[in-house]
Amino acid sequence: MEFKPRAIFLDMDGTILNHQNEVSIHIKKMIDELRKKGYFVFIATGRAFDEIEPMVPPGFQVDGVVTSNGMAGYVDGEIVFKHTLPLDLVETIIKKAREHKVYYELFPYGTSRITLKQDQAYVKAEIRDPKPESVGLNEWLSRKQAIKEEIAWKDHIEGNEFSKFYFFARTKEHINSWKKDLEQFKKEVDFTISISSEHNVEVMVANVNKATGVQQMLNHFGLSLNETLAIGDSDNDLPMLRLVHYAVAMKNAPDRIKEIADDVTDFTCDEDGVYHYLKSKFAEVIL
Fold first, then answer.
1. How much is the pTM?
2. pLDDT digits over 185-209, tens only?
3. Are both 124 and 194 inside the same structural domain?
4. Is residue 2 assigned to a domain?
5. CB contact at 8 A, 42 and 198
6. What CA–CA distance (Å, rounded) separates 126 from 31?
7. Residue 29 burial by CB count (10 A; 0-12/13-18/19+): exposed, middle or buried?
């Protein structure tokens, strides 16, 4: 790769995160080296901001974070842009989710994710053991952790600023039925749907995705799209990968992601693929 970007955007799940939901110390050190040499390194994830810290090594730092598939951007822990789902849309979608008995987590800004107590029984039932074979281990572990420690079970919706909905089902048939219902509802009220696995779907504000978040972060730093590289692995990365100047797919990505990429890593997320890719492409810079 002769192209040397100034800005590098890295997805988390399936990219810098392995299937145990961990970022290796090697990736942290590589990011540190690149930033020392004047490169800008960003995270662009479907996860909310508060989910990131437990998964990264101590001292992990980047120049900025695009979270919730473009719904918000953070620099030094401070919000530099954000969008919010309107409360009436939130309430309507929860009612529809209840009709489908689909697992959901609502992410308010600045506080714990919410699931209503009246939905607790069927939500917990979706995470019963054993893990369905087709569910990714990292997604399953995240749901187990959410049920155990991270969801605030509430009698009613609290707050008025929300970054996203996350929905999950243990069977593809269940989540696909829910996706169809959301697509029908989109004909009445516009919003964005994002998918990062065969068992989930997320809802954000209309016309918001990772690409819009990347562009807003670039604007904040005065950087150009011509200077950008991004690495990702799933459908919610597609807008970002199509936007940037140089797109890289993970070896563990589906073929449909690899087909639109300019390059593919030689190693998977479980083999420190991002570390090895950046080391090989920037060897003369960081050595």
1. 0.92
2. 999 999 999 999 999 999 999 999 9
3. yes
4. no
5. no
6. 37
7. middle
